[in-house]
Design goal:
Keywords: Cytoplasm, Kinase, Phosphotransferase system, Sugar transport, Transferase, Transport. Its main location: cytoplasm. By secondary structure, this protein is α/β, with parallel strands linked by helices. The chain has a single domain (about 5-140), classed as 3-Layer(aba) Sandwich (Rossmann fold), CATH 3.40.50. It is built from 6 helices and 4 strands; from the N terminus they run βαβαβαβααα. The protein has helices at about 10-25, 40-55, 70-80, 95-105, 110-125, 125-140, and strands at about 5-10, 30-35, 60-65, 85-90. α1 packs across α4, α2 (about 40-55) crosses α3 (about 70-80) and α4 (about 95-105) packs antiparallel against α5.
Length: about 140
């Protein structure tokens, strides 16, 4: 099973971690590493390395980060170069996280990366867009087509 390490600025990681557990229950090989204001990147790096030791049981890990180019992303990326099975995904949202937690059993980190990116794209929408889809489906049915 792929290990999952959440990281981001402030309490992003623990906030998302707690919300995910509330929805899908406690998860193995799932860890959150915050990067609070004033923390050093050295401390962040050490915490991420410690998380890898806990989360990687041989099938690899995926780092989920908040912001492209931010310290959590850059630090996770540097660590991933040293690992044989690791991916770094940024722009993490709840849709992506839940999909990964529920589907990671049978996927490699590389397969999971591709599935998660697509899932996150599908999950970003608006009420207006969803309502338009329903309206166009209703029109097709009303016309008998």
């Amino acid at each position: 099973m792929i290990g999952v390490i959440l990281t981001g600025h402030g309490s992003f990681a623990t906030g998302l971690h707690e919300a995910a557990i509330q929805i899908v229950g406690k998860q193995e090989q799932f860890h959150a590493v915050n990067f609070p204001d004033g923390a050093s990147t050295e401390a962040l790096e050490q915490q991420l390395r410690d998380a890898v030791k806990v989360c990687d049981k041989g099938d690899g890990v995926i780092f989920l980060t908040d912001l492209l180019g931010g310290s959590p992303f850059r630090t996770a990326s540097l660590i991933s170069f040293e690992l044989t099975q690791a991916e770094v995904i940024t722009g993490t949202n709840m849709q992506l996280l839940l999909e990964l937690l529920l589907e990671r059993e049978d996927l490699t980190p590389q397969e999971a990366r591709d599935v998660m990116i697509e899932s996150a794209r599908i999950g970003i929408t608006s009420f207006w867009h969803e309502n338009q889809k329903k309206s166009s489906q209703t029109e097709v049915c009303d016309d008998g087509i």
